Amino acid sequence: MRFYAALLVALLFSLPGPSVAADILRWVDEKGVVHFTDNLHNIPEKFRANATRIKARETPRSEEASKPAFFDKASVPFQKRGAVVIVPATINEKAAAKFVVDTGASYTMISQAIAKELEIDLEKKLPTIPFQTANGIIQAPLVILGSIDVGGLQVKDLTAAVHDVFPDPGISGLLGLNFLSNFRMDIDTQNGVLHLEKK
Fold it and tell me: I want to staple 106 with a disulfide (CB 3.0 to 4.6 A). Which of 3, 50, 57, 129 is the partner?
């Protein structure tokens, strides 16, 4: 798990994003439950001094992606491996995936195995973006996913980078802020549930 944490810090905080969204605030209550919100007034006053601010970046959403989804809220059980939170998702309404939730990443990222399952042609010329890894800077191709669905909440036409971040083949990639910033988010670590509410 230390490897995952170190790799994520080195790789993900370097990701650029085309447009800046509202910052996300992280705070911990008296029971040790971690919460995220985009509104300072959602944090009880006694916890505000210790809240930390996370810079949120997102790619512009298409008109279709901005329309209200059938569901407005979801509570999704997650797996926890050390400090890493993993949630199930569906990509392009057909491929089952497991994503690490990462509020420090500007972009969502998928593994090469998932890209192959989705029949994405990585041999053709695609736009790329530089990523800082433990072995130096690599150029990761960018693709447009038709949709990512988590707990019935869906974002369409989402930009994702293709790179194998994790050695574990059971992890399909990570959910970055260009997905997460579409929702108000709360991670209930005590009950192992990720709560999402569409903005």
Answer: 57
